[in-house]
Design a protein that fits this description.
Number of strands: 21
Distance between the termini: 63 Å
Strand order of the largest sheet: 17-18-16-15-19-20-21
């Protein structure tokens, strides 16, 4: 009997990471988590960093585990959060741990750049990316402005998944979907823009060769083969941006759908053939990010479960011990729409206390101040669903097709209360699942590179065959419409 073949996926989020193995047999996929580990922000000297070597160590640990189990690995793929990058010196060494996108150095960098370097509209007309202070372009500008020594001496700048792939193979690439989060890439030419790079004192040679999802980067170095006990396993450039991998895993039947990738961040959008860059997309600050097979992910970033995750860390131990369903269930006993926030207000970006930030917002907008964990949780869920309604309405205006279905993928797809609220608010049928969308998309793209599946629609069919989606139909339309009017009045 032929030995079962596996694909090894590394899925790194802004708070945790996992290594996962997956296989495809008889038109269905199987998935198994190998390791799980935290991804901690490191605060030092007034800055926030990622520990790139800790992440590398965890990848090696996962590879050693599968080697010890005698599993046959067809390939390896890495996806991560967007915008962050690693700087490599001319001696082939990492110059320092990479800055995290929540570093305070970027708080005023965007406004300064747009005022003194290139105007807001000019930048958007090139990149078509939602203007956010932590985008790579503004991180690099802030570093240059402070005289950052690592940037001064960088021979190469590699986005996070590309940097980890380089650590495994020694080969430098610039994968398209992760590069598209930087606000340095023109989605029409699908290349980094020379003028935007020049505005930062950079040239195209500072970045790796642009590659599409599904491209072979290289094989494990001799060093890693020795450390792990594996052979020359190929490393594939999957959709390096975790949202791109997740959207590739949406089990849609046709092109007429919207998606919500629900996790620390919520990303709501549609899949289009071409970028949408016009007056209205600029006014509403929408993003055009790279997808697979030449598609564009036209979407809006929304501050998602970050609000809930941060509050949960602050609550007393007896609250933290409650399961998510227990805590969220208690929130359902609280009066609806009592307090509403704008999840995307700047005050929620990285406050010292998320609880205090939420309370301050409610106080400043003359609303009842939520005090208990249940009240705060209910405030977050109501507010997120209302923000989703606003963005969904905007997408209806942009989409060249009618939107009746919203696919929710990622960890947030397990949140039955927020899923129902989202259906109620948007008026759309919500289909929840898969939870592991990012890892599944990662594995499917490896399978495509191996010739096991031919295109995105075969991938989506295999995914649909492998799981049962949970359906949520809208209810309470009048109550949610009334709440939306309140939200609009306070979310300006």
């Amino acid at each position: 009997m032929e030995k079962k073949k596996y694909y090894f996926a590394v899925d790194l989020g802004a708070t945790s990471g996992r290594t996962i193995i997956g296989s495809i047999n008889d038109g269905k996929f199987d998935l198994e988590e190998v390791t799980r580990f935290p991804n901690n922000l490191i605060e030092q000297g007034g800055h926030f960093y990622w520990d790139i070597f800790a992440l590398y160590f965890e990848i090696i640990k996962g590879l050693k585990e599968v080697a010890q189990r005698g599993l046959e690995i067809t390939s390896i793929g890495i996806d991560t959060w967007g915008v962050d990058f690693v700087m490599i010196g001319d001696d082939g060494a990492i110059l320092r741990n990479p800055r995290a996108y929540r570093d305070p150095i970027t708080f005023d960098a965007m406004d300064d750049y747009l005022k003194h370097v290139i105007s807001r509209r000019e930048v958007y007309d090139v990149a078509g990316i939602q203007l956010m202070n932590f985008n790579s372009i503004f991180q690099l500008y802030a570093m240059r402005r402070e005289g950052n020594s690592a940037l001064k001496h960088a021979q190469k700048i590699l986005f996070t998944p590309d940097a980890l792939s380089w650590m495994l193979t020694g080969n430098e690439v610039c994968e398209y979907t992760i590069a598209s989060t930087s606000e340095l890439l023109d989605p029409r030419t699908k290349q980094l823009d020379e003028r935007l790079l020049a505005s930062l004192g950079l040239t195209r040679s500072k970045f790796g060769k642009m590659v599409k999802p599904g491209t072979l980067i290289g094989v494990l170095t001799d060093e890693i083969q020795k450390i792990t006990g594996l052979g020359a396993v190929p490393v594939i450039a999957v959709a390096g941006h975790d949202t791109a991998s997740a959207v590739a895993a949406v089990p849609a039947k046709d092109k007429q759908f919207a998606y919500l990738s629900s996790g620390t961040w919520s990303l709501m959008g549609i899949e289009t053939k071409d970028a949408i860059i016009n007056d209205l997309s600029y006014e509403r600050n929408f993003t055009n990010e790279g997808g697979i097979e030449g598609t564009t992910r036209f979407l809006k970033n929304i501050c998602g479960m970050w609000l809930y995750e941060r509050c949960r860390k602050e609550w007393p131990e007896e609250v933290r011990k409650l399961s998510h369903p227990e805590l969220q269930g208690s929130a359902m006993q609280v009066e609806a729409f009592r307090s509403i926030i704008n999840p995307d207000d700047a005050m929620f970006a990285n406050p010292a206390s998320m609880i205090e930030a939420i309370q301050t917002f409610c106080r400043q907008t003359n609303q009842p101040v939520p005090e208990s964990p249940a009240e705060i949780c209910r405030c977050i869920f109501d507010s997120l669903a209302l923000r989703y309604k606003q963005v969904f309405q905007w997408l209806q205006e942009f989409a060249p097709f009618k939107l009746d279905v919203l696919h929710i993928i990622g960890g947030g797809s397990l949140n039955k209360y927020l899923n129902q609220f989202t259906a109620n608010a948007t008026g759309a049928t919500v289909l929840a699942g898969p939870q592991e969308g990012t890892a599944i998309g990662n594995i499917m793209l490896q399978a495509k590179a191996a010739g096991v599946v031919k295109d995105i629609w075969e991938m989506r069919q295999i995914i649909a065959n492998s799981l049962e989606l949970v359906k949520f139909e809208p209810t309470d339309k009048a109550a949610w419409d009334e709440a939306f009017e309140k939200y609009i009045s306070i979310a300006k």
